[in-house]
Amino acid sequence: MTGAALLALATITATAADKTDDKKPAPIPDKMTTCPVSGDKLGEMGKPYILEYKGREVKLCCPDCKKDFEKDPAKYMKKIEAADKASNKASDKATNKDSKK
User: Is pLDDT of 9 > 90?
Assistant: First the structure.
């Protein structure tokens, strides 16, 4: 094999490896129906503004709320996590109720 052929093969292999490394897991979905910053119902001001924070999806009512979120993300992530727990408990109760029938 010539040097040029080896170089071309190495380039193709490296490019293929780079494409598989680009895939990262999808963020954990945000189950809240209200904006954790303003408390407004999501969708009332148009399509929610969605961002990702530490592997979690965060839905805000508008881009302006992003500034407040970024000032104290831990405060708002607690609200999102609490809503997730409440949603999971409600889902578990419904599943248990259905399985008793």
Answer: no
39: Cα separation from own chain's centroid: 19
pLDDT beyond 80 at 13: no
pTM of the model: 0.66
CA angle 90/45/67 to nearest 5° reads 90
Exposure class string for 12-34: b at 16+ Cβ within 10 A, else e? eeeeeeeeeeeeeeeeeebebeb
Could you state, in order of their start, the residue ranges of all structural domains in the chain? 25-90
Q: Which two tokens stand for residue 24?
A: 């990262």
Q: Look-up: residue for tokens 């380039």?
A: 11
Q: What is the pLDDT of residues 54-75, one digit of tens each?
A: 999 999 999 999 999 999 999 9
The H helix count followed by the E strand count for the chain is 3, 2
* Count of Cβ atoms closer than 10 Å to residue 80 Cβ: 20
